[in-house]
Amino acid sequence: MLSEFDLIARFFTRQPRAGGAVTLGVGDDCALLMPTAGELLAVSTDMLVEGRHFFAGTDPEALGHKTLAVNLSDLAAMGARPVAFTLALALPTADASWLERFARGLLTLADAHGIELVGGDTTRGPLNLCVTVFGSVPTTHALRRDGAGKDDDIWVSGSLGDARLALEALQGKHMLTPERLALARPRLDRPQPRNALGLALRGISTAAIDISDGLLGDLGHILERSGGGAVLNADALPCGDALSSEPVARRRDFALNGGDDYELCFTAPAARRADVTAAAQLAGVPVTCIGRRTADAGIRVLDHNGIAIAVHAASFDHFASP
Ligand code: ADP
Ligand code: MG
Q1: Which alpha helices (H) appear in 119-205, and where do they start and end?
Q2: Read out DSSP for 33-44?
Q3: Which residue owns the Cα nearest ligand 1 atom 8?
Q4: FRET partner for 218 with CA separation of 20 to 30 A, picked from 17, 114, 208, 228?
């Protein structure tokens, strides 16, 4: 049987990278980080709860990946460079094979983004995974939600809706062929946070958010802070590979309201279009201009005839449903 301390030592303790921001990592009362002079520390926490955010029995490696990915995504949406993270874990049992695979998924993604695990807490309890990330961003470059300009373009990265399609297929709400489920499922299980894009958009984008609860709801958060509304082009919405072969009503619904995409939705002045495209190329992520900000409040979605489509922003709220 693994003790709490064996478990931390075996799976979650590594030497801090030489020359990095981490002066002291796992093993003391606190980690010690050296902030970058002249930059702000960006901090965010996201928790994944079994039965709420993932099915019991989910592949532990995918879970390790996703636990960190959803947090890295918040740093991307702030334009912050990932530096370090902590991990608070509640585990029903100390299962070495589960932990090994979980740690592999977590630390492989951490290495890919140059972010270091510097501490955490470990307790027995219903499976619950909580990460806090720390990032660094120059004072004038944080991609805050309140910065969208008057007539700014609205952009999204990558594609939308496949995570929702996979979720509904796994819940038995929707039939998908095994081939199309295999296409959609990585978007649900292994989201790829857009950190390179977030960094490339520093100084270009005026406001950004990561799409975790659905485009309409998350864009709504930018508009709440920045004021005004938006008009979107329904035909411009970039649908995921699997979603693209669904009927148009579902394509629109899942692209507008599907959660778990972890793409970036961001604004930029129309005069910066070439810079946005260059940033996307640098980051190796496609971006699509889907509309623009308007002076009037509310989000209108228009089809190719300019006719408004009835949409409801069904953004996920943990306390709205049982
Ligand atoms: P304390 O009693 O000071 O809270 P703990 O005994 O909980 O310390 O943890 C010992 C050390 O191990 C601390 O440095 C803590 O940050 C680290 N730690 C605990 N759990 C984890 C974990 N799941 N991942 C990484 N580090 C952890
Ligand atoms: Mg502790």
Answers
A1: 162-170, 178-189, 195-200
A2: E-PPTTEEEEEE
A3: 29
A4: 114
- Looking at residue 58, its amino acid is T
Atom of ligand 1 nearest to the CA of 89: 23
Compute the distance from residue 26 Cα to the ligand 1 centre, in Å: 7
Query: How would you label 31-69 residue by residue, b for 16+ Cβ within 10 Å and e otherwise?
Result: bebeeeeebbebebebebebeebbeeeeebbbbbbbbbb
- Which residue's CA lies nearest to atom 17 of ligand 1? 119
Residue 17: HSE in the Cβ half-sphere, 13 Å Cα cutoff: 13
CA dist 183 and 177 (Å) reads: 10
**Residue 308: both structure tokens together:** 């408004």
177-183 own/partner pairs: CB under 8 Å, 24+ apart: 180/242, 180/245, 181/242, 183/240, 183/241, 183/242
Q: pLDDT tens for residues 142-180?
A: 999 999 999 999 999 999 999 999 999 999 999 999 999
Separation of alpha carbons 12 and 107, rounded Å: 9
Please write the tens of the pLDDT for every residue from 185-224. 999 999 999 999 999 999 999 999 999 999 999 999 999 9
Nearest ligand, CA 10: 1
- Output the six-digit token pair for 305: 């005839």
Q: Which atom of ligand 1 is nearest to the CA of 28?
A: 14
DSSP 50: B
Is this prediction's pTM over 0.70?
A: yes
Helix ranges (DSSP H) in 95-177: 96-112, 162-170
DSSP-derived letter for residue 271 is G
